[in-house]
UniProtKB/TrEMBL annotation:
Belongs to the sulfur carrier protein TusA family. Residues 4-69 form the UPF0033 domain. This is Transcriptional regulator. InterPro entries: TusA-like (IPR001455), TusA-like_sf (IPR036868). It comes from the Bacteria. Signal peptide: none annotated. PANTHER family: SSL1707 PROTEIN, SULFUR CARRIER PROTEIN YEDF-RELATED. Pfam families: TusA (PF01206). It comes from Agarivorans gilvus.
Length: 75
């Protein structure tokens, strides 16, 4: 699993980084994002769910984590 700590970055940078990962991801690959920006925290899970990928959102007192599991391409 690739983990990207993007807590120091605001949208759209975290979304762009996650889209770049998706271009090379294979089915079952996982990406974990650590996010602080409220826009990213809201938009990234919504975007990847809309594309049909599994998304797990976890938050504790220190960090907001989004774990994306790539689904197979339908092409």
């Amino acid at each position: 699993m690739l983990c990207l700590d993007l807590q120091d970055h605001a949208c759209p940078y975290p979304l762009l980084e996650s889209k770049l990962w998706l271009k090379t991801a294979k089915a079952g690959d996982k990406l974990q994002l650590l996010l602080a920006d409220s826009g990213s925290r809201r938009d990234i899970p919504k975007y990847f769910r809309r594309l049909g990928h599994d998304v797990l959102v976890e938050q504790d007192s220190r960090v907001f984590r989004v774990t994306i599991t790539a689904k197979p391409n339908k092409d």
